[in-house]
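Protocol step 6 of 9: fold each sequence in the batch and record its structure tokens directly after the sequence line. For illustration, a two-sequence batch is reproduced in full.

Sequence one:
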Amino acid sequence: MNIKILILFVAALLIFGCAKSSSKEKTEMPVTLVNADYDTATFAGGCFWCMDAPFEKLSGVKDVVSGYAGGFVNNPTYEQVSSGSTGHVESIQVIYDPRIISYSELLDVYWKQFDPTDAGGSFYDRGSEYKSFIFYRNDSQKEIAGASKATLDRSGIFRKPVLTEIKKFISFFPAEDYHQHFYKKNPTRYYSYREGSGRDNFIMSIWGDEGVNKYIKQSEDKMKTQLTPLQYEVTQKNGTEKAFQNEYWNNHREGIYVDIVSGEPLFSSKDKFDSGTGWPSFTKPIDTRYVTKKVDNSMGMLRVEARSKIADSHLGHVFDDGPAPTKLRYCLNSAALRFIAKEDLEKEGYREFSYLFK
């Protein structure tokens, strides 16, 4: 990891830019349900400093632990792993509630944190200890990971083959305390390192910036004039439209569904299914980072509410009775959505989501 010292020295010149990047990070309180039965996912994507933060901020994630996995030395030190002689790779363990977020959704976030076509390390960090791996813990995780990797390869997003290995989990050893949640303990060093290593520029060039500037919430006056009374009631007052009497419950066309207020992309027809409820239902979002989840105690029930991240529109609720692979059902209001057909993606400014239909 000596290269990190060099990168941090060079990146000191970029602190102002890093501070700007830091301002884009939004801290969200995690949503938790009582009697949670947590699952664990183990991922490697290069420097674990940079892999921690994106997952820790997801609704349904209890904790993220940085450490070492895949090797043959018990309780290795950071120095031992950095030497490349232990067989371990820098990794993270994500402890999550599958009733709120699925393994499949975690994988969608995972692929967007590094370059999965790099077989020799990760950005400036070279060596076997920085290679990317998905360590599966059971047959279900293995199957989901394989399908996710195949979908990414087929999409053509990367011009080279996806080389991330899918390997059976054997052991994981937590890293030293000073590595845990590094982005909180040393934010200046963290953002400087991300930018100096080239990771942020790469992610931006492939995936964009989550539409931080492209998608915005309309003013109250504008929403009242542009939204129908039902759309306003649902998105702003947490209303619910009638089952079987809404626009998209039976829509079978290919395309994506975006927030009616901000336009941020939310769901794909590829993940839509007939739940029999009379409301449009999906197994997962296009990118779970666009959807926040909150505990909803209204109407005498304990439920998980789904809201859009940027517009903060009420979308519907999430239930844990959906089909594989996520076993989740995002039950949504059509009034909170706008459908964009596959053939209209480029015209409507959503060309980057064409890969979903390859």
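Sequence two, same batch, same settings:
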Amino acid sequence: MGFFNDIVDAFLGPPDWPESSRKQSEAFQVQAVRDYDNNDGNFKIQIKGALSVSYASNLECAINFFDKSSDDPILSLYEQTTEDDTRVFLHSVDLGIVKENQYFPDWVDLTSFVKEIMLPPRSGSKVIEVRAYLYSSDNPISFEGGYIDSKDKCISYAINTFTTKFEDKGYRDQSEHRDLARVATVPIAMAMAMADGSLDKSEGLVIKKWIANTLDTYISEDKQNEMKKQLNEALDSSYKAFLRLPKNFKVSENIDSTIDAFNLVASNTDKFIALELCLDVLAADGFADETELNLVKELSTKLDLDYDEVQKMKDKTLISIDAKLSSSDSTSDEALIGLDMNLNKEDSLAFIKKEFRKWNGRLNSLQARNERDNAQRMLDALARLKKKHGS
């Protein structure tokens, strides 16, 4: 399933019914109204008027929604109310056998929905079109991206509007923010690569591979080219910016503004993707330098990520490094294990014992030689820490 930036404009559009038929008092009508009988924010879909069948037929009524200002379809977060091949909202109700010239003089409840399953293109207060399509079960309508394959299959069509407010990001907001987050991920990864003072070739290749994989997620060639330019510019400019920094300058301080901007647009998923890339960069040269390990810790804090999840990701990286865990004896055991230096003696020992149990349990289950060696190095570091903090 593609996202709708590339496909919405290609569809047929709603049926062009004669305006005069809509003005007739007996014409088929639809409306969405708040369900005040419940306190859960539900809306009711109601229909009234003539169902326009000349003989008894098994009818169905399909409902979907559009943002009136942009004419973009509303998506659904609930799989049971989507089209077969897209996430566009679609809900069909079987009306059963409808008699010839059946007519509803008053509004009749058709179905209900919860606003929280709706995903609009943009957040904010929106005028939403509710569209209703009557068709025979023997000649069903096919929908794609909110639009029908043939208006000839549609017995009656009705449209109405209602206004509601969406607090969360819409799917076009999410798409744009995701792009911005991806561009901001590159200088964050470059900071990890330059944390030890230089860019190793293997680290640069990891970032370039991530860029290539990211570009593969875009369907449109124009969008690919646009993002390729932005991502490559971010790679080049961030590398040059780090080269201009004076020696002994703390790399993490140079990306504080980037992280602030990143946090404004990034989802939790975007943040974990950025951290995963940083860990891949850390492992690329086969070393876990103390400055890199400290930067991982700083990033997890600045990105407001769950500590336990970050530890799991870091452990997975450290255990799979092909060379050795530390590039020199200067890497402290505290940095290697992730021990918070602000903990008191009692809490430090509790953390060390917890980590020792974890790594000791893993040692017995690992098969690869380098993974067992890395786990043993972690245990050795923990033994030294236990002696140091227990004395």
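Proceed to step 7 once all outputs are recorded. Observation for sequence two: Residues 172-331 form a domain with the TerB-like fold (CATH 1.10.3680.10).
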